[in-house]
Write a structure and sequence with these properties.
The protein is α+β, with helices and mostly antiparallel strands. The protein has one domain. The chain contains 3 helices and 8 strands. The strands form 2 sheets. A 6-stranded antiparallel beta sheet has the order 1-7-6-5-2-8, covered by helices on one side. A hairpin with a 2-residue loop joins strand 5 and strand 6. The longest helix has 23 residues. The termini are far apart.
Length: 154
């Protein structure tokens, strides 16, 4: 059972702390108590901390620059309990209408992991900081597209 925890605004973590990362492939419209309803992006993250591992569900509401973080409350889990919590978290977000994809965190090169830590909303201390990064990523994409079109003209 995952419960909303208002104390969390983000899940800043290091590469080494992250056990697993699942991201949503879609952005369904969700209504979260106390939050503005709208399209959301979901992340299920397994994080190893000083007291053991925990599974978090992070819903990012881009239009409101807000988030909702859910957790099960279990800490110091065994490997089997962790896998059970991860499965429960995925079932929870899928029940909200999200289609999830395993980002396969451990198999991804460290450079890509570092990029995700800098760009995915879940890893920001506060969701209000995300639009600046998203805008920079969009600018970078536009520069790459413009350069590609320029080179294709030859």
């Amino acid at each position: 059972m995952f419960n909303l925890d208002e104390r969390y605004r983000g899940l800043p973590a290091t590469r080494e702390q992250i056990l697993a990362l699942h991201t949503s492939l879609n952005t369904p419209h969700v209504a979260i108590p106390g939050k503005q309803a709208g399209p959301a992006q979901a992340f299920v993250v397994g994080i190893r901390g000083g007291q053991g591992a925990a599974v978090f569900v992070y819903l990012y509401l881009a239009e409101a620059a807000d988030c909702a973080v859910y957790l099960s409350g279990r800490r110091n889990m065994t490997a089997d309990e962790y896998r059970e919590d991860e499965g429960d978290a995925l079932a929870f977000v899928e029940s909200l209408g999200f289609m999830m994809d395993d980002a396969n965190w451990r198999a991804v090169p460290p450079a890509q992991q570092d990029e995700w830590l800098k760009t995915l909303p879940v890893f920001f201390k506060d969701p209000k900081l995300v639009p600046a990064v998203v805008a920079r990523a969009e600018e970078k994409k536009n520069v790459t597209t413009t350069l590609g079109r320029f080179l294709a003209a030859f």
